[in-house]
Amino acid sequence: MKQQQSVKIMTFNTWLGGEAVRDGINKIAKAVELSGAGIVGFQETPEPGKAVAEKLGWHYFQNKNGEANCSVISRFPILEASYIEGMSAVLAHIQLPSGQVILVAVTHLYYDPYGPYWAMFDKRSVDDIIAMENEARGWQMKLVLQELAPHLASDMPLFLMGDFNAPSHLDWSDDRKAQHEGYAVRWPVSVQAEEAGLLDSYRVVHPDPAAMPGITWSTVHTPEHPWGDNPFEPQDRIDFIYYHGSNVKVVSSEVFVAGEPKGFGSHEDNEWPSDHAAVISTFELL
To answer: Where would one find the signal peptide in this protein (predicted)?
Structure first.
């Protein structure tokens, strides 16, 4: 009889590896401890992986030659790990206490151009936005999914997390046009994930984006403290934990921030070291 296993997973853009705030590495480590997660995927420089894992006494994988802008840390043994050539993405096979082996993938898709700016500020057509998304990030997502395809086919428990730098089509639907300047967009990255059979853990738990928007961008670039020369900063959900597997069930998912971050320009002493909120999802594996 198989043993049921629960695992809590966190995705966390570390904002230049904690360099944007004072004592960033210690603040990242504290955030991980406060989260209660057992597996964490970092994005935006791989360096926090080793430093934070050593502080916590955890296992870690970060690409030594710097090609992958991501790292993974785990309470549980990492049996093998690799990165995707030419991509900011790492993969790790992790063994849970039950003996179950899962695959964790962490990715950081390219940030520019940013689709919501094309909609909110430039008023570009939906066709133009989708074409841009495919050129900027769609090909990256395709590479990640090609790497994961054999594992998806095998039905092993699989988790894909990261900063995807694009919203979800589940949030920009026809009935949400009023919140998005009249736009409904089938964002290619999230559509690709759905078509590959991956489930968006936050939206499975919180299916109504009006009630639970799940904003992850941004903790410091608020509407009043926009990025660069933006007239305001659109708030959106661009960090995700996707999952796949017939024996995997998501039981909770939340957006996580420690403390009360001050806006950009007054952020250096924030307890929270990132300009993104983290996402934490808890899963049961049967």
So the answer is: none
- Eight-class DSSP state of 137: I
**What are residue 93's DSSP bridge partners?**
80, 103
The closest alpha carbon to 217, from 94, 96, 115, 121, belongs to 115
Are the C-beta atoms of 174 and 207 separated by less than 8 Å?
A: no
Tell me the residue type at 3.
Q
**Cα(263)–Cα(200) distance, rounded to whole angstroms?**
29
Before 113, cis peptide (omega within 30)?
yes
Q: Per residue in 217-268, pLDDT tens?
A: 999 999 999 999 999 999 999 999 999 999 999 999 999 999 999 999 999 9
Report residue 115 as tokens. 């689709």
Instruction: Please give the CATH architecture assigned to the domain spanning 5-285.
Output: 4-Layer Sandwich (3.60)
Span 149-198, pLDDT tens digits: 999 999 999 999 999 999 999 999 999 999 999 999 999 999 999 999 99
> Residue 285: phi, psi to the nearest 5?
-115, 125
> How many angstroms separate the Cα of 214 from the Cα of each of 11, 205, 280?
13, 11, 11
With contact defined as beta carbons under 8 Å apart, do 221 and 261 qualify? no
Among residues 202, 195, 213, the alpha carbon closest in space to that of 254 is found at 202
Give the residue, 74 or 45, on which the prediction is more confident. 74
Q: What are the tens digits of pLDDT across the range 26-49?
A: 999 999 999 999 999 999 987 899
d(Cα 7, Cα 99) in Å, to the nearest integer?
13
Cα three-residue angle 84-237-222, rounded to 5 degrees = 120
